[in-house]
Specification:
The complex is a heterodimer of chains A (357) and B (255). Chain A contains 13 helices and 15 strands. With 357 residues, chain A is of the alpha/beta class. Chain B is built from ten helices and seven strands. The longest helix of chain B has 19 residues. Classes of the chains: A alpha/beta (357), B alpha/beta (255).
């Protein structure tokens, strides 16, 4: 049994990475994720692991690409406007089928925005800013324990599918300390001996490249990637349901907002309104089938995000035709509080509850 | 009968160069392959190709190879070298890039890799233009040179000045070796091989960052015959970009 520790979300991610064998970290400072790099700059050299203060986020993510080709477990971390700089390599890594973990601790945007808490990078992570037909796996933790667990899962999934995995955290979660019990990796190690670059000794030389001048081969390659993403969508979906079974109204949220959603449910349950909360833990693959199923019984959904409605479109695409989907959001600043949300939910219920129950 | 020549082992058996007639990439890659053979490095090598004509390296060299995004080969090589070191392995890692790749879009990554003294080797083919896209002005295009995007010739007021890459890299404290060579005649080809060998050997000794700039012909985009292109390197370019070794030290000072 591990000891309980009081740590920040950012440190939980860094610690978890070391606990599951991450041997390379490349980073560049940006608030609110800097603690990850600071913690690792202290811990990794002690263990003779690779830690490089890169000259830029572009340098860092390209180092990750190279390190990933050797089969090492590799992590980079950054935030919003700096994750924008990394989009090129995310696209390359998807085509090259190279695994690494990218921790994206959201701050407010667009552009530099500021270091306020926000969830404005759902689109950046899930639909991406890189070119071509690709997907990253996106995990969205809601508390410090999940930061720890999901980092282990991220390394496992990235190795299993040979694809970058994004851990989408936010400034609030990164800076918030909670007591957790770090439980070490129970995921199996993945054999990568068939594809890594290690020098062509006693085997043919290997090439890793995304350039493909032959259009038939390029088509084949993209369709192969598509089949992989289809498989991921079929088997890797994770979500958290809270009081959804008998719910007349379901709140949909991701990441830190899931914490508030549960409090909102409790508030309305006490008033006799059957409210549930549904939180995707994987943003890609998105739990669209589960939402479709829930919407057979529940006809009113309220999506709540710290942005102007990014996951909203995926919720709308998932639920059955005729389901009412409302939105409550705030782009930036102090996190939406219970009272702010209930004030808006009251109005929605007044308008829509009777019609949907 | 005694065999006097054979194709290097580090060249793929089934490959034929696809470069334009008279292009020096073929000679440069052959020299790299010969040196890998002579130093017995082939089986321990990971090469990094980049964007532009240099990307096709992996079609010709029979070593493990990864393609880098445009300009970032030195950063990718850093990741490979460091990841191996973290596993207690010492791999031979080199990049093969063009001048646009190394010294324009990738100058930041290249320079910082030199400053960090990464124990890798970088080869930069300088043909004074962007070859693959049809000969546009690059960071090394010389004053007055006509290209697809400097139709009246490079002009300092309008286009700024070209970069002397090998001299700049030599100024970085983490650099242990920096040189410029050319391939326009036998004497220079033999010398280039010696210089590449030194830049490779330095890495195996773990000294610092090692760099070789190779002045190369681009007859197609220069609108010259192969021999005219070599004359141009001999009589014009090697005066602007002097050949020689700009830095060669046995150890990088540690502070």
């Amino acid at each position: 049994m591990s000891e309980r520790e009081l740590i920040k979300g950012n440190i939980a991610i860094a610690k978890s990475a070391l606990d599951c064998g991450c041997s390379c970290y490349f980073g560049y400072p940006i608030t609110p994720q800097t603690e990850i790099g600071e913690y690792l700059s202290y811990e990794m050299p002690k263990r003779k692991l690779a830690y490089v203060c890169a000259e830029s986020e572009i340098g860092a993510i390209n180092m990750a690409l190279g390190a990933a080709s050797t089969g090492a477990k590799v992590m980079v971390s950054s935030s919003s406007c700096a994750v924008s700089l990394m989009q090129e390599v995310i696209s390359y890594a998807c085509s090259d089928e190279l695994p690494f973990v990218l921790v994206s601790v959201m701050r407010a945007g667009p552009g530099q925005g500021y270091i306020y808490a926000s969830q404005g990078d759902y689109n950046q992570s899930v639909t991406g800013g890189g070119n071509g037909d690709y997907h990253t796996i996106v995990l969205a933790p809601s508390n410090v324990a999940e930061c720890y667990e999901m980092t282990q899962r991220a390394f496992y999934l990235s190795q299993k599918y040979r694809n970058p995995v994004i851990i989408l955290s936010d400034g609030m979660l990164g800076q918030m300390a909670e007591a957790i019990e770090p439980v070490k990796n129970s995921f199996p190690e993945i054999d990568n001996s068939s594809w890594i670059l290690s020098g062509a000794k006693n085997r043919c030389s290997r090439n890793i490249h995304s350039l493909e001048p032959n259009q038939d081969k390029l088509n084949e390659h993209i369709l192969k990637l598509k089949r992989k993403y289809d498989l991921i969508e079929a088997v890797e979906v994770l979500y958290e349901e809270y009081l959804c079974d008998d719910a007349d109204v379901i709140l949909t949220t991701f990441g830190s907002m899931g914490r508030v959603a549960k409090a909102v449910c409790n508030y309305y349950r006490e008033k006799g309104i059957k409210m549930g909360s549904f939180r995707p833990k994987t943003l890609f693959p998105f739990p669209k089938d589960k939402l479709a199923e829930l919407s057979k019984k529940t006809r009113l959904f309220i999506d709540i995000e710290m942005n102007t409605g990014q996951m909203l479109k995926d919720v709308k695409l998932s639920v059955q035709d005729g389901t009412e989907v409302k939105f409550i959001g705030k782009p930036v600043g102090d996190w939406l509080r219970l009272e702010e949300i209930t004030e808006k939910v009251d109005l929605i219920l007044k308008e829509s509850y009777a019609a949907n129950v | 009968m005694q065999q006097t020549y054979s194709i290097p082992k580090s060249i793929k058996k089934d490959s034929a160069f696809t470069f334009c007639p008279g292009c020096d990439h073929g000679i440069a890659i052959k020299l790299v392959a010969q040196v890998l053979d002579e130093l017995n490095l082939r089986e321990n090598t990971i090469a990094v190709a980049s964007s532009g004509c240099s990307v096709f390296l992996y079609n010709f060299l029979d070593v493990d190879c990864i393609e880098s995004p445009h300009g970032r080969a030195c950063a990718v090589a850093t990741g490979i070298k460091r990841a191996n070191a973290a596993q207690g392995k010492d791999k031979f890692v080199f990049t093969y890039q063009g001048d646009g790749d190394f010294a324009s879009i990738g100058l930041g990554e290249s320079m910082h890799t030199a400053l960090r003294g990464e124990k890798i080797t970088a080869i930069c083919i300088n043909n004074t233009n962007y070859g693959m896209t049809g000969g546009q002005m690059g960071p090394t295009t010389v004053m007055g040179q006509v290209t697809a995007t400097s139709p009246t010739g490079r002009n300092s007021e309008y286009h700024g000045f070209p970069i002397k890459t090998a001299e700049h890299i030599a100024l970085c404290d983490g650099t242990s070796f920096s040189a410029r060579v050319a391939l326009y005649d036998i004497k220079n080809i033999l010398n280039a091989k010696k210089v590449i060998k030194k830049a490779f050997e330095n890495q195996t000794k773990g000294i610092g960052f090692n760099f070789v700039e190779i002045l190369s012909s681009c007859p197609t985009n220069w609108r010259l015959t192969p021999s005219e292109a070599h004359e141009k390197i001999k009589n014009e370019l090697s005066l602007i970009y002097p050949l020689g070794i700009f830095k060669d030290i046995d150890k990088v000072e540690k502070e």
